[in-house]
Specification:
23% strand; extended; 4-stranded antiparallel beta sheet; 696 residues; 42% helix; 5 domains; alpha+beta; 27 strands; Chitinase A, domain 3
């Protein structure tokens, strides 16, 4: 449940006071630029153009992200990187705002909080009319200025006010950049001409693949020379490191799997005889929790549900494998239930199962729901009572209505009542959340629903398997102290030596290895040739050796080779092909000397330099628009995929498929879109000191 909701449960007036204080804190400023750090100490996680990111402030924002996204499966390690990027962006942009004098004035802030897109709409909207009660919000702030709760004020600032201010500033900044977008007339006319230009030519083509790679060697000096000439393309902003590693399998063995299967089979008879499924499965530790209700085949998540629905009541199917478990399935019962149901309800909460907090005494909740039931039976308006008393934020503003929903979506007692009872039924139901007064408003469809119990045992590695892998990894680690010995012992033990490249200091994952922050830290705390102790990663033990340290700056020969080697090799092949195969000065002569046919390419577009059957060849297509080559064979030209000689047959222009106005709109929009990518340029230009490695 959100912070706002927990506050609301204790009384809506509290949130009004909290937001009031937050608003006052902002309005008392001359203007608002961006949220600052709440705490300050000497522990600095990083700097952006000299402006500090303090660890205490960083941890506070990280904790908020964990609360917001932890339930969605986000890991702390992932969120550290996300929060870091947000902080860098905040400071980089904030510094730009300062240079430009961008602010959010008190009046603008008031418009944000009380305008049509207010972040407070949910709290101050009339549930009957849907109207945002801005005046009520202002009055609440005016009346509740004395409320004090520092932690909750911080939370309101973090979740609502700071993001609203930041978004407004960013929109102002982007609009300034976007409004500068301009396409001059000459560029527009040139683009129109390029888009419509077409050419046809004849050509002779010898692909590079006709020369074996093994016959063309590329030296380190040649790669170094190429990198030097193209230094900007091979410049790295941060250091990376490479490792070689071997792994020792600690996954469950065949023997381990058989042991688990035998354990499951030994419990089959007791499972078949059990009548209290919940108690049995709890006692026997099933990996699949028991859902003590019914659901249709369509709602089943089991891969073999077609088979499961055919089990007779009381019968057992299995064992079978589901994921990493051996499973026995028992059909407990079947019923004919609606496919979906529409209801309305009023919840009188007694506890919050997610937080474990008590909302009100059970006896108090029971008395209140009984009173509500009596009032409704006496003719009281359901919607009015819901608005006044219901503690369910998901339906309170809708008169308590949940539109048609499928089986299994609600907690079991609620689910069973609305699907098992006939349409129109009313009554009180107790759940873990409290007491519900429910009315069934409609039911759709009908199908067989099933209650199935699953006895599932995980297929886990035994202690013997894990110990054997751990011991083998430890022995290997101790026996190798240098790269030569590492490779020799790996060969003797028939272990595959694999590589992990371009590991950055703040990475949490190594490609091919998996997630292991500990291994990354070790890589950066040691040097080339050092061998690690075993790291347990997933279901294996990994022993790593640092094979390279790639310093920031211009890439080394080893780093550049995978990219540059092919380029240089093709240059050499082109030289060889031109010198040995292209003889004469006509296409017919070239065809004779190369053994390649004369071919033709029609209607090639200048703006889309592709040759059918060959691929992208911008240099060759560009030459096709050289008017000096009309009716005349060119010299051999080294292209992207091979060597060409061409003769231009004709150049011209096709009918335009767009007008200048539309083209201008398209080009202007493209320029404007670049503004949204401008933050990357600001980051690259910034002086960023990243000290995360010292803390995480």
């Amino acid at each position: 449940m959100s912070v706002i909701q927990r506050i609301r449960d204790k009384g809506a007036w509290i949130i009004f006071g909290i937001i009031a204080l937050a608003l006052i804190a902002f309005i008392l400023q001359d203007g608002v630029r961006r949220g600052g750090s709440t705490f300050s100490n000497t522990t600095t996680i990083g700097k952006v153009n000299g402006e500090k990111i303090e660890r205490s402030d960083f941890e506070e924002k990280l904790a908020l992200q964990e609360k917001m996204y932890g339930s969605q499966g986000a890991q702390r390690e992932q969120l550290i990187g996300s929060v870091w990027n947000q902080e860098v962006d905040r400071l980089v942009l904030g510094q730009e705002y300062d240079k430009l004098g961008l602010q959010v004035s008190p009046k603008e802030l008031s418009d944000i909080l009380f305008g049509d897109n207010s972040p407070l709409r949910q709290e101050f909207t009339d549930p009957k009319t849907g109207e945002f009660r801005a005046n009520d919000a202002r009055q609440a702030f005016a009346n509740l200025k004395k409320s004090k709760n520092t932690d909750q004020i911080k939370m309101i600032n973090s979740v609502y006010i700071n993001p609203a201010v930041a978004q407004t500033l960013r929109m102002k900044y982007q609009n300034l950049v976007i409004q500068a977008a301009y396409v001059p007339k000459w560029m527009l006319e040139k683009q129109m001409a390029d888009n419509n230009a077409v050419a046809s030519f004849s050509y002779v083509y010898v692909p590079y693949v006709s020369v074996s790679d093994s016959t063309v060697k590329v030296s380190d000096d040649e790669i170094a020379s190429y990198v030097s000439k193209h230094a900007k393309e091979f410049n790295k902003t941060e250091e990376t490191r490479n490792i070689n590693y071997v792994s020792f399998n600690a996954a469950p063995s065949g023997s381990d799997s058989a042991t688990v299967l035998n354990t499951l089979l030994s419990e089959k008879a007791e499972f078949a005889a059990a009548t209290d499924m919940e108690a049995f499965l709890s006692k026997n530790s099933s990996e699949i929790p028991f859902y003590n209700s019914y659901y249709s085949k369509a709602r089943m998540q089991q891969p073999n549900k077609d088979t499961l629905v055919k089990i007779p009541v009381g019968a057992i199917y299995g064992p079978y494998v589901d994921g990493n478990n051996y499973v026995l399935a028992k059909m407990v019962g079947t019923k004919q239930w609606p496919d979906s149901v529409k209801v309305r309800h009023i919840l009188i909460a007694t506890s919050d199962p997610r937080s474990g907090q008590q909302v009100r005494a059970d006896s108090t909740g029971k008395k209140l729901i009984d009173s509500i039931e009596t009032a409704i039976k006496g003719g009281a308006d359901f919607g009015a009572l819901c608005t006044k008393y219901s503690d369910d934020p998901g339906s309170k503003d809708k008169g308590g209505v949940y539109d048609f929903f499928p089986q299994g979506q609600m907690v079991v007692p609620f689910n069973d009542f609305v699907f098992d009872k006939p349409n129109g039924t009313k009554g009180v139901v107790k759940t873990d959340y409290g007491y519900h007064y429910i009315e069934i408003l409609g039911q759709k469809g009908s199908s067989t629903s099933y209650k199935i119990a699953y006895l599932a045992k995980p297929i886990l590695a035994s202690n013997e398997t894990v110990t054997a892998a751990s011991t083998a990894a430890a022995q290997f680690s101790v026996s190798v102290k240098d790269p030569k010995k590492f490779n020799e012992n790996a060969l003797k033990q028939n272990l595959a030596v694999q590589g992990g490249n371009d590991i950055k200091q703040n990475d949490y994952n190594i490609n091919g290895v998996g997630q292991s922050r500990q291994l990354v830290r070790w890589v950066y705390e040691n040097g080339v040739g050092d061998v690690s102790e075993p790291f347990e990663i997933g279901d294996r033990y990994v022993v790593a050796m640092i094979s390279a340290v790639n310093k920031a700056g211009t890439a080394s020969v080893a780093e550049a080779r995978p990219t540059v080697e092919t380029i240089i090799r093709n240059e050499k092949k082109a030289k060889q092909i031109i010198e040995t195969k292209f003889k004469g000065n006509t296409l017919e002569a070239y065809a004779s000397s190369t053994g390649a046919p004369v071919q033709k390419a029609d209607s090639l577009s200048f703006s889309a330099p592709f040759i059918s059957g060959i691929g992208s060849e911008p240099k060759i297509v560009g030459a096709a628009f050289n008017k000096t080559l009309v009716g005349k064979a060119s010299e051999a030209i080294a292209g992207a995929t091979g060597v060409f000689a061409i003769k231009v047959e004709a150049t011209g222009a096709k009918a335009a498929n767009t007008d200048l106005v539309t083209l201008k709109q398209t080009l202007t929009q493209s320029v404007k879109m670049n503004a949204y990518r401008g933050l990357d340029a600001l980051r690259r230009a910034a002086n960023i000191k990243d000290n995360r490695f010292k803390f995480y």
